[in-house]
């Protein structure tokens, strides 16, 4: 359906409004505006790129700001349309601005807020839409949006913490590899030419280094594309169903990093489950949403099996306890929540505890990785330097070997 951008004047207040709406024809758009008591000053068909409003994605930080500000405005008593118009005017992200305007137009046209959000699945996830829908039905939209903003803020904070913790070791490792390749390709051959003029047997470490340097020189134009092909092949493989299942099963069993990955998935599971239950979403729908957002295929399968068991009459804790991917601590907290009728509060505590453990582990890991990487870099580069200087230390034996 075509979209039309219009400039109209409110007959009651005299205020000019600039927005857009969907209509089959321009005449239908004008008629719809007249029905809203709006005098059309100008109207034209929107000529945006295909998929502009529904395609692409926005940073999580922009979504957090939008949700928090919308919650504040609605709680203050502003109408939904006025709130969306204000947010569309003040946002700096062009895609987000177009999306908000489209949502505003649909709400003006009579659609529910959650129904309008469904038109943009790449920006507003199913979790987001379901919580908004529950808020609309329960008359607690401002409160639900505030909870949703808090949930998104916690998600963004954890994601930022993980990325920042992994950035340093990744950068140092990449630099170490580049320095090693440079030394083997450019520096070591120069020393090799000097040592070859001695006409004597070099120390074994130096000979091995020369052979490695010669191999790198001969295959340098194959090594780099080969490394790129391996990385590309691995990334393509883990996007397939068996590849993703293999990687998700393997990564939660890795030492140190596997524990962190497992806790991140558990924290996402417990916090999402708590937010949806607290918002009044039906439990089976909750489990279906959580399974899609947990971020691990093994855990997703376990949740779907547990959902079937719950549908047959089992309790949440009893159904999840059958799967070892959920630790005993989570199951016991769930059991206590079921007994006291405070599942959402218990799950929220578990999520907070897991977030604290993840941050503590990442901080300790970062402190441990820094000296380990320095040692690694020193051993690699220092080893190459020592191998190059060994013949110089034994210069007298090389130039005047015993028995000459």
Structural class: mainly alpha
From the spread of the alpha carbons, the general shape counts as elongated
Mean of pLDDT: 81
Poorly predicted sequence stretches spanning 5 or more consecutive residues: 48-55
Distance between the termini: 94 Å
Helices and strands, in order, run as EEHEHHHHHHHHHHHHHHH
Counting copies of identical and different chains, the oligomeric state is single chain
Radius of gyration: 31 Å
What's a concise summary of this model?
The chain is mostly helical and 404 residues long. 73% of the residues lie in helices and 6% in strands.
Notes on the structure:
The chain has 404 residues and is mainly α. The protein has 16 helices and 3 strands. The chain has helices at 26-35, 60-75, 80-90, 94-108, 113-117, 126-138, 141-196, 204-239, 241-251, 257-278, 283-293, 297-311, 316-320, 328-340, 343-393, 395-399; strands spanning 3-10, 16-22, 38-45. Helix 6 packs antiparallel against helix 7 and helix 10 (257-278) runs antiparallel to helix 15. It is elongated and about 105 Å long. The model is unreliable at 48-55 (pLDDT under 50).
Chain-wise SSE layout:
Elements lengths: L2 E8 L5 E7 L3 H10 L2 E8 L14 H16 L4 H11 L3 H15 L4 H5 L8 H13 L2 H56 L7 H36 L1 H11 L5 H22 L4 H11 L3 H15 L4 H5 L7 H13 L2 H51 L1 H5 L5
Antiparallel strand pairs: 1-2, 1-3
Helix pairs in contact: 2-3, 2-7, 3-4, 6-7, 7-8, 7-10, 7-15, 10-11, 10-15, 11-12, 14-15
């Amino acid at each position: 359906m075509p979209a039309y951008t219009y400039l109209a004047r409110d007959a009651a207040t005299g205020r000019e409004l600039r927005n857009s709406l969907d209509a089959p024809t321009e005449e239908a758009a004008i008629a719809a505006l007249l029905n809203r008591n709006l005098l059309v000053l100008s109207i034209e068909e929107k000529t945006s790129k295909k998929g502009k409003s529904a395609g692409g994605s926005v940073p999580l930080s922009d979504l957090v700001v939008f949700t928090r500000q919308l919650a504040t405005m609605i709680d203050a008593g502003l109408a939904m349309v006025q709130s969306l118009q204000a947010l569309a005017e003040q946002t700096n992200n062009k895609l987000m601005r177009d999306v908000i305007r489209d949502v505003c137009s649909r709400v003006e046209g009579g659609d529910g807020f959650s129904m309008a959000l469904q038109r943009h699945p790449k920006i507003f996830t199913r979790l987001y839409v379901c919580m908004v829908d529950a808020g609309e039905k329960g008359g607690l939209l401002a409160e639900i949006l505030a909870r949703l903003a808090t949930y998104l803020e916690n998600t963004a904070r954890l994601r930022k913490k993980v990325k920042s913790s992994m950035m340093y070791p990744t950068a140092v490792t990449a630099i170490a590899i580049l320095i090693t390749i440079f030394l083997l390709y450019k520096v070591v051959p120069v020393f090799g030419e000097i040592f070859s003029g001695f006409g004597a047997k070099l120390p074994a470490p130096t000979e091995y280094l020369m052979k490695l340097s010669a191999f790198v020189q001969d295959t340098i134009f194959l090594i780099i594309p080969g490394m790129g092909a391996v990385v590309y092949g691995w990334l393509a493989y883990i996007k397939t169903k068996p590849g993703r299942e293999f990687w998700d099963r393997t990564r939660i069993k890795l030492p140190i990093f596997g524990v962190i990955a497992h806790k991140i998935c558990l924290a996402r599971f417990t916090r999402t489950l708590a937010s949806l239950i607290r918002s009044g979403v039906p439990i089976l729908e909750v489990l279906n949403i959580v399974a899609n957002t947990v971020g691990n295929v093994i855990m997703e399968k376990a949740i779907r099996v547990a959902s079937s068991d719950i549908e047959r009459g089992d309790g949440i804790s009893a159904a999840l306890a059958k799967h070892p991917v959920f630790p005993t601590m989570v199951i016991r907290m769930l059991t206590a929540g079921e007994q006291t009728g405070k599942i959402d509060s218990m799950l929220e505590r578990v999520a907070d505890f897991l977030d604290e453990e993840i941050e503590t582990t990442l901080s300790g890991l970062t402190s441990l990785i820094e000296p380990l990487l320095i040692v690694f870099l020193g051993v690699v580069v220092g080893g190459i330097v020592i191998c190059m200087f060994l013949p110089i230390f034994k210069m007298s034996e090389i130039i005047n070997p015993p028995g000459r």
